[in-house]
Amino acid sequence: MLPGIVNFNYVEFNYRYIQPKNRGLDGANTIGGTLSVALFEPLFLKFGAFWGSGEGDGTAAATNSDYDFAAIQAAVGFHTQLVDRRLQFSGEAGLMYANLESTNNSVNFSDGSIYVRPALRFAATEAIELQAGVTVSSADEYDSKVFDLSSYIRVLPKFDVGIGGDFGDSTRGFRGNLRYRW
Predict the structure, then answer these.
(1) Are the C-beta atoms of 56 and 65 separated by less than 8 Å?
(2) What is the tens place of the pLDDT at every residue in 23-57?
(3) 0.70 exceeded by the pTM?
(4) What is the dihedral of CA 106, 112, 113, 117, to 10 degrees?
(5) For residues 179, 150, 78 and 76, what is the CA-based torsion angle, rounded to 10 degrees?
(6) What is the C-alpha separation between 90 and 113, in angstroms, rounded?
(7) Backbone angles phi, psi at 107, to 5 degrees
């Protein structure tokens, strides 16, 4: 049994602000969710989706172009303890599909990819979890490399709130999370 807050059975909902880089687009407000289901030790499945919309920033490349952005992912992963039970290494590999549709066709894309994500999850206390990970994918149009940081605090026995940031080669994002563990 994993200690306290580090768990691979959870459902998570988030609000995320994503800022595209070098596209002439303003940031997008997105909503999304993730489902992680532990199989037999040490394997888990992970599914996620998010959707958002934004506007052009008035540059020549995307003047007044509204856009919608969506992504879905499915993965299989494993985890193992490192130095002690509070520090877990996890790795996942999966498929991701991202799509951006804009009123300005020069910035549209649709991109399917394979990805891997090694990560560390650390239970700083029984009520605080810290995470760091790196996602590397075969994406051509969307983030092929992302460094992410997250922190969670337990507010109820099975309910956590969290904040985090994603720093990719195409976007950067900041998020707030609500997570239910079982």
Answers:
(1) yes
(2) 667 888 999 999 999 999 999 999 999 999 888 76
(3) yes
(4) 90
(5) 70
(6) 20
(7) -110, 5
